[in-house]
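Make up an example, fold above all:
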Amino acid sequence: MELAANENYSLGTPGFDQVFFKIVTESEARLAQLQTGELHFTDQVGAADIERLGDVDGIQVDRATGLNPNIIGFNDASPDFDDERVKQALVFAIDRDGLCESVFLGFCTISDVNVRLVGDQIQWAVPTVAEGMMEYDFDPDRARQLLADAGWDSDTTLNLWLMAQAAPEAVIQAINIMQAQWADVGLDVVITNVDVPTLLDNLGREEVNPDVHMFWNAGAVFTLDPSSVQPYNLCSTAYPNGPNLTQYCDESTDALWAEARLSGDQDVRAPLYKEIFLAENKNPNNLHIAVIDNIVAYDSRLKGVLVQGDHWATYWNISDWYWEE
């Protein structure tokens, strides 16, 4: 895709007459073309490639703390999840800190209490452990006990749908490790690669398929205000009516969301939000794997690049980029 500079751009003349965007789906191909000069910039660089690229003359690598959670959504329309203890066990069975260190090489953050919210600036809305939040540390014994208490049938197969074409390679690696960790506590999880339309067709476009138990998803940013989580949790926004792909529905928290949005006073909203997140902490609709750092690499002659945590906004200041020999 070829873009031409807009001479009338309100913030000044862009640094380039033309920019070419090239879609290269394979990460190895992107990095190879960066080193040969066919590409001058690439995002979605894996943590494992930071050291490798750091040794290449003329290549600059930058990173920022990530803002986009990678999650496993639980399909609450499935009767296999009628008992919230099954979903709790799915979270307790996963060594998320270990995945952060071994797969993402530490370039990630974990939500100990398994919530979407990202960033210290909105932690005023998240209850502490002292206020009743449950920390989902790696505890396979607790996972086994929860399954036993729920009367889980070990012959049950759970289906996880993965959009592998869209998922970073490290995320796919992490999910494969998670499959083994689930098996260790007695959860048989089968991973199936699907495309986005197939996933959506089975999560509400025609009817909800209860045999799609879980799915990988990522992308949105939840840093401005806790209300940004609301559309993913309301009964009325269950897909296809909105972005609530998990079909999560709790009328009591719906009422709290509505009440919280009536006030601009943070002191009024905080206790309402905390009650909401206490309920979701107990009855999770997602397993929050990790928030991966946004890592980019580019020709060192390219100047003005400012990387920030949202990987959907990599080119936010591209009008300030310029070339310097």
